[in-house]
């Protein structure tokens, strides 16, 4: 790579190293100091690029107050499993399609917009706090308002409490949606008093947190809930400058068979336009097309608009920041720099793993630590990250999940062979194994398990892991 970047022949570099008494072959890794030395020996001028050089001019343009305009709020729906997060998301989406223009079938792109009283609201389409946390872990904050769903026929549950903590930690205001009020066993008052114990003091009890009784399936009070969101965002006074180059965050990314790498981004400031050159994480590209949540091509996307971006060189990661840069050379420079950084980190991690593998072996002998190897494939990067984060938390001193590989896409033969060499079980979340992979897995006897609810997946692994635990004395 160094030879290539200097426009020299690799063989000349190898010769140079040989003269220095070092045997090197293409693909070997050298450190930055050596590279600098070699480059100057070959008569090149070296300019060291650091992250601060790269980031300069990105993400830190100050906007003048008079340039700021109101933007729609971005909402995440959180709450315990089965309390109705997905039903609410579906209800809002479908209501919007029905009232929208003809043929407007919403596409799943990871986020969508609805209108209430002529004002827009953006919903992130991945329910639950796991995805929210995974995004935050990457330094991205996309959410302005969290809707906390609690089923009125149930009570405040563990994931309700977790959701409250996550929203609070992120400083995101909560609106409580007391769901399933159509049920005869519904007891909204009980939910409100239970929430008090977790410092969620709702308006109808005299507190400040907005609460709305709804039914997602019977479509009761959904407009009231949307109005509460608008009220809350008025209080937040959400603004950004639409008249500048766009910046924002990647919500989802995938490799589409027909369309190539596709990233769904949420524009947070500025306006993203077809033809713009963007860098997203360590990927870049010229925006070939922008597709909205109704599958329509649009020319530009304003703040808080979720949009699919076509034209990237590769799929970025959920949670990556994106920004428009001035030209292709700059985009390449930043993306190459970041890819190099990521590679270096991967190399370091691998080196570290060899060490920790040895440590692990000795630990195994002394303390009986057991590992549960897994290969995880999911439909989108966001859910994969959420699953990995949740599995990491399951580990105890005695047994831990070891994620051999995690990624987005169908289960392939390569996953099966990876599982074979590592003795892993394959987990498919909203994805299936392709034909060849299925045949290979059957042939070798690799277990492939499918899920479409994260909670079920985690619960199963937990059970399996506890089976690995030594019996209680
Ligand atoms: P999630 O796990 O939080 O996403 O919950 P779901 O949206 O999948 O809902 C779980 C179950 O509750 C499903 O069977 C829904 O049909 C049902 N459900 C959701 N909202 C309501 C509601 O308002 N009323 C009633 N009766 N059932 C509901």
UniProtKB/TrEMBL annotation:
Native organism is Aquamicrobium aerolatum DSM 21857
The record's comment on protein family reads: Belongs to the TRAFAC class translation factor GTPase superfamily. Classic translation factor GTPase family. IF-2 subfamily.
> Where primarily located?
cytoplasm
Molecular functions (GO terms): GTP binding; GTPase activity; translation initiation factor activity
What would be one Gene Ontology cellular-component term for the protein? cytosol
Query: Which part of the chain is the Tr-type G domain?
Result: 70-237
- Annotated region (G-domain) at 73-221
Q: Where in the cell is it found?
A: Cytoplasm
| Coiled-coil segments | none
Q: What is this protein called?
A: Translation initiation factor IF-2
Instruction: Tell me the superkingdom of the source.
Output: Bacteria
- Record keywords: Protein biosynthesis included? yes
* Primary role: One of the essential components for the initiation of protein synthesis. Protects formylmethionyl-tRNA from spontaneous hydrolysis and promotes its binding to the 30S ribosomal subunits. Also involved in the hydrolysis of GTP during the formation of the 70S ribosomal complex.
Provide the binding site for GTP. 79-86, 125-129, 179-182
On whether Cytoplasm is a keyword of this UniProt record, the answer is yes
Keyword vocabulary terms for this entry: Cytoplasm, GTP-binding, Initiation factor, Nucleotide-binding, Protein biosynthesis
